[in-house]
């Protein structure tokens, strides 16, 4: 039987996944964990062949666990679970070696067919999907956002919270004209025309299950 490890911070979901997977005689859940440290401790003992990992754990990113597997147990095939619109998380999962990225809204049939494909050595993430997501992130301004300076990123966070130029100036200890100059340059770099667009972009990233790392 194929050994599976599950990491999800919700006990009810973990139990449901265990029951679903073990209804299929070719798979055996050898470990179930609610956080990264517990998952690593169990992986060291059980050496799973598949790790099914929730992208967004309570206070951690499941992508960090995927990185651990990539470095320490590269023979284990990682399958990530995330929301259907987690473009950043999808791209990051691909870059840390995940073989599949499944939406949590997907069916039990999709999950099991994916586990079988991954077991056979296939990757369920193809180059066309990756290219489409990279283009989407480029066009949205998120790639350019990832390359802003720390000052500009801090200003973006303030804009996302609705701060005025004066409030940003006071919060970041910058001259108000300096703030205005930075905001104007940020709009140009990100291809945006007003502060509302900047706020929407920054909030979309901060609410994402992925991060800007690696872009």
UniProtKB/TrEMBL annotation:
UniProt key word Protease: no
Keywords: DNA-binding, Phosphoprotein
Biological process, per Gene Ontology: phosphorelay signal transduction system; regulation of DNA-templated transcription
Alphabetized SUPFAM superfamilies for the sequence: C-terminal effector domain of the bipartite response regulators, CheY-like
An example molecular function term from Gene Ontology annotations: DNA binding
Pfam assignment, any one: Response_reg
Keyword Phosphoprotein carried by entry: yes
Protein name (database record): Unannotated protein
Matches recorded under InterPro entries: CheY-like_superfamily, NreC/VraR/RcsB-like_REC, Sig_transdc_resp-reg_C-effctor, Sig_transdc_resp-reg_receiver, Tscrpt_reg_LuxR_C, WalR-like
Record domain HTH luxR-type: where: 141-206
Domain Response regulatory: residue ranges: 3-119
